[in-house]
Amino acid sequence: MKGHYFILLLGLGSGLPAVAQQATANSPRPGPEEHARQVAAFQQELNAEYRDSTRSPLPREARIAFLSLPFFPANYAACVDAQFVADSLGAPFVMQTSTDRRPFYRKYGELRFQLNGKPQKLTVYQSLDLQRSPEYRDYLFVPFTDRTNGHTSYGGGRYIDLRRAQLQGGRLVLDFNRAYNPFCAYSSKYSCPVPPAENRLPVAVEAGVMSSH
Fold this sequence. Notes:
alpha+beta; two-stranded antiparallel sheet
């Protein structure tokens, strides 16, 4: 899932877990029962990552005691049909991270959608580092904050990963139930992108991974 957005400090590298590697093109917005099944499968795989010593950001003691991440209840209303507006003409820019690392990204486009009865938008980014890898060059990145941050979700914001194949006819199914925490939420050994100001949602997104505290 994480798509190299987290860099483990001290020269230990980073990887791309199975949830992201298995991502496929979205069909139109699923029905409630299928959506519940998809969310359960996502949560199961994410929990499996956190139990795996080769992929987990958890310290050894926390990993041994780990049972499950805290999740908001599956929220069908937080799975939305979004309009995608391409915008790839901007120059690459340096994205702020939780450390002094400054990776380059470019704006790939904008998602426009309704959430909590109000029009919203989020910018989609593309990592220049991932562009160098044939296996991951189609990955897209949506870091965001919302009004649950620092309360029921991690204060530093959350991420959603996408792939270009999910864009169908200028539309995309954007599911906030797939929002997950940066590894920095669990360990200071990681360097994680900070969601840009333009991706601050003025609503509470009660879906995806909750705060562990």
